[in-house]
Amino acid sequence: MLKEINVALAQISCKIGDKKHNINKMKQKVEEAKKNDANIIIFPELSLTGYLTRDLTYELAEPIPGPSLKLLEETAKKENIHIIFGMLEQSKKAHAVLYNTAVLLGPKGFIGKYRKMHLPTHSVFEEKRYFRLGYQAPVFETKIGKLGLIICYDVFFPETSRLLRLKGAQFIICISASPARRQRFFEVLTAARAIENTVFLAYVNLVGVENGLQFWGGSRIIAPSGSIITQAKCDEEDLVTGSINYADLERTEAFVPTLRDLRPEIFNSLKEQAENL
Amino acid sequence: MKLTADRLKLDSPLVETRIKRFIKDYIEKCGATGVVLGVSGGIDSCTTAALAALSLGSHKVLGITLPEEETYNATDVQHAKMVAEEFGFKLEGIDISPTLKACFQSLPIYNASDKLSKGNVKARIRMVYLYYYANKLKKIVCGSSDKSEVMMGYFTKWGDAAADISPLMDIYKTQVRQLALHVGIPTEIVTKPSTPGLWPGHLAEEELGVKYETLDLILFGLERFMRTEEIAEQLNLSIKLVDGIKKRWLATEHKRRTPLTTKIGYRTVGNDFRLPYTPH
């Protein structure tokens, strides 16, 4: 496993429903990232189709594996790079069972996927109308580290990131489609998840305008200490690369030993209280 | 939550950027050659026109003044010209009086003393002109309704609020004033009393029965799910006044939506047909 990796954050805008256009843009960004010696490139939530697909969600969703994933798999193999992107996933067993999914590809092809566990259905969001909740938070052991994936609103729930960290994740990747009104929440919460778990965290947000919503970008890599390693511009497309050195985890863990100080007995009480809210 | 004037303080540079990006993005996506706006010389239309010019380039913006003799106000027309000159967009003027006369003469049930029905025709005739220009020039109609008047239903249905985009529709009137000053709209335009101009001496605050400074705080409270009792208490207003505003807001939802139908089919327009708002 590599001790140090270069991470490219591909903060793009997407054309709603135009997978061909979006895949071409993603391929272009992969080539650019490769020039910067990136080991991994990360795209925003639902980057394959755009975020606000509404009723088109049904016709745009694909099973995994599926045709779009195959095209991006070829790119990952050709460019010898890891790719994370977001897509509408259709169940292989039922047509209208859909997931908001993050996919991890590697130089040898498909590695794994994560289905969003917390689906926002309030304000401008209507994800529960279309998606089934995800139930698993896997950690992927790869050549570039032990990776855990979360999606956007998941970052509001510390349990998901905690679970990934307890399963051994060193690097949590949060792909997102966050509108501008919520910028401050994500700035604070992404840093909090990194600090409280002593873990590296990459946040990659969408930009552009969809249905009048303006996505604010501001993608970043956050060190376990909470400091920002690299940050993309706000409100416009950007591609930035930052380095992660896993040796920093050891130093930070000794300085802020949150995992050592965990109190598992509280978790039972949390479960009990949450069930009776 | 305390309802104070600070709540309505706008981050004007940020809002300017967002509105300009919104206009530009929409025009690019729909492939139009620009926007057509009715410019009355009032704060909303002048601010919208200025933002459109700053966003798209003034050559893509066409302003049209559409006065009529009954409510003709030389100062307003002069204000429209000032803003067009300052922001460099083309301004045309069309007197809609002959069209109105012809329209009224052909209406068998026309009654000149019914100010509202008559005034609404003026707003709808203006809409017809704007859409003719938009169709002919492959532009879109850019509306200038603000959030206060839209929440109050204080506009003519299918008239002045009829547009393809309405960039100011999520900011209250008092916030439009802040934005207007920020982008450089002359103070005399910003401070003059607002008028829908449907009849002579028609003043918005007089007709609404409340100053915009107060109305906007009430609407802000309603937007944040506050109860009318709490709003009234905080603003030292009668519950009757606040309840009346809430009632008007709720009663005018029909003006802000596609026409209601009854559910018969599998998916229904305006109901559970949920499609992306992409113009292409």
Summarize the structure.
Chain A is of the alpha/beta class.
Q: Work out the number of β strands of chain A.
A: 14
Residue share in helices of chain B?
40-55%
The DSSP helix count of chain A reads: 8
General form of chain A: globular
What brief labels describe this structure?
heterodimer; A: 277 residues; alpha/beta; six-stranded mixed sheet; 14 strands; 30% helix; B: 280 residues; mainly alpha; four-stranded parallel sheet; globular
List the helices and strands and how they pair.
The complex is a heterodimer of chains A (277) and B (280).
Chain A: E1 4-11, H1 19-35, E2 40-42, H2 57-60, H3 67-79, E3 82-90, E4 98-106, E5 109-115, H4 127-130, E6 139-142, E7 145-151, H5 158-166, E8 171-176, H6 183-197, E9 200-205, E10 207-210, E11 213-216, E12 220-222, E13 228-231, E14 238-245, H7 247-255, H8 264-275
Chain B: H1 12-30, E1 35-38, H2 43-56, E2 61-65, H3 74-87, E3 90-93, H4 97-105, H5 115-137, E4 140-141, H6 147-152, H7 173-183, H8 187-191, H9 204-208, H10 212-223, H11 228-235, H12 239-251, H13 253-256
Helix pairs in contact in B: 1-2, 1-7, 2-3, 2-7, 10-11, 11-12
